Amino acid sequence: MGVFASTDDPGSTGHEQVVFCQDKQSGLKAIIGIYSTALGPALGGTRFYPYASEEEALADVLDLSRGMAYKNALAGLDLGGGKAVIWGDPEQIKSEALLRAYGRFVESLAGRYYTACDVGTYVADMDVIARETSYVTGRSVEHGGAGDSSVLTAWGVFQGMRAAAEHVWGTPTLAGKRVGVAGLGKVGKYLTGHLLEDGAEVVATDVNPKALEWVRATHPQVTLVDDTAALAASDIDVYAPCALGGALNDDTVPVLRAKVVAGAANNQLAHAGIEKVLADRGILYAPDYVVNAGGVIQVADEIEGFNFERAKLRATRIFDTTREILRLADDEGVPPAVAADRLAERRMAEVGRLRSIHLR
Ligand SMILES: NC(=O)c1ccc[n+]([C@@H]2O[C@H](COP(=O)([O-])OP(=O)(O)OC[C@H]3O[C@@H](n4cnc5c(N)ncnc54)[C@H](O)[C@@H]3O)[C@@H](O)[C@H]2O)c1
């Protein structure tokens, strides 16, 4: 296993293991970060991205793998948290040899880490990686995979939003509410369908003209606005960021008129402290990593042999988890994002501890 540069002491970040992988001939440089295996093997996708430096790649994998531990814990999975990054431009260097070399490094961890898709990697890549390792999920339907994870991601976001609605307005429905969907991509489209079916009014925006065409043709009752800034400032009850990260920032939060934020986008809080600004403004933020866990629930289910109904049932439980987090936040007088972290840490400690009971 190649080490391509020295790094900080991984113990200082709380990670169990950080593995540097290098295969010079194929051009592979990867870092696998395992934050925790307290609840089971670490699960998290592989991000293939042209990082500016090794430090940037390392910082990303440490951050993302930690996030996965919290997400998997709150999704009720018997899985820990991990993530991997491959450093380079996938358009330039992705090849069968590189992916298979990576697969051999994943295999060498003997099941401590399961990989899946992330930015820059796709189901077809997982099929290639799987030729070298069995510790890979998120595979193509032809290979027993579950296919598009956005179906259950949208379902889970809808469940989390229902729980937030109940917390604020007393009933677990979006009927009669105006919901602003920022981003009509794979998740935003399905979410819009669930919202309309529930009786909500949907206001939406996207930068892609094709997405706008789709909504005009499929759901002509949806009101379209120019951009996310206009959407955030409009008269909506719920804001659902479903595009990029950092949606809740110093520009949007002060003008937000919604009482609830619940959406699919990862890393919605642009910086530490913004959750407090939301809380001070009386806006209930349903933590992104809690409500968008439907996708990871789907790929985790695939490890057992995919069953859509079982996975959907698990994603439906995002309603209960969100409800529990919002109650805990009230009881402990902290923002929901802090309550979610506490609940995840509690499960990792309480359930993870059981492994100290010796069986044989
Ligand atoms: N797909 C999943 O299963 C899944 C799971 C968990 C989290 N997420 C997160 O949810 C978000 C959406 O995922 P997706 O799979 O639907 O992605 P996607 O790429 O299919 O959709 C994103 C949409 O946002 C639009 N968009 C980009 N920038 C915008 C802007 N500035 N203003 C308005 N619209 C903009 C894009 O045109 C696109 O239609 C991402 O942040 C993703 O990381 C997705």
Task: Summarize this entry quickly.
Its EC number is 1.4.1.-. This protein is an alpha/beta fold and 360 residues long.
Q: Layout of helices and strands, plus pairs?
A:
Blueprint: E1 17-23, E2 28-36, E3 42-43, E4 46-49, H1 54-74, E5 80-87, H2 90-93, H3 96-108, E6 113-114, H4 123-129, H5 150-169, E7 178-182, H6 186-198, E8 201-205, H7 209-218, E9 223-224, H8 228-233, E10 238-241, E11 260-261, H9 274-280, E12 284-285, H10 288-291, H11 294-304, H12 308-316, H13 318-332, H14 336-352
Parallel strand pairs: 3-5, 3-6, 4-5, 7-8, 7-10, 8-9, 10-11, 11-12
Antiparallel strand pairs: 1-2, 2-5
Helix pairs in contact: 1-14, 3-4, 5-6, 5-11, 5-12, 5-13, 11-12, 13-14
This protein binds nicotinamide-adenine-dinucleotide (NAD).
Residues 149-150, 153, 182-188, 205-208, 211, 228, 242-244, 264-266, 292, 295 line the site of nicotinamide-adenine-dinucleotide.
Enzyme class: oxidoreductase
Keywords: NAD, Oxidoreductase
EC number: 1.4.1.-
Question: Biggest sheet, open or closed, and with what strands and sense?
Answer: 6 strands, mixed
Helices and strands: which structural class? alpha/beta
Strand content: 5-15%
Give the overall form.
globular
Radius of gyration, taken over Cα atoms and rounded to an integer in Å: 20 Å
Task: Determine the mean pLDDT.
Answer: 94
Small molecules (ligands, ions, cofactors) in the structure: nicotinamide-adenine-dinucleotide
Q: What is the number of beta strands?
A: 12
Distance between the termini: 32 Å
Task: Give unreliable regions as ranges.
Answer: 1-7
| Percentage of residues in helical conformation | 40-55%
Number of helices: 14
The topology string of helices and strands comes to EEEEHEHHEHHEHEHEHEEHEHHHHH
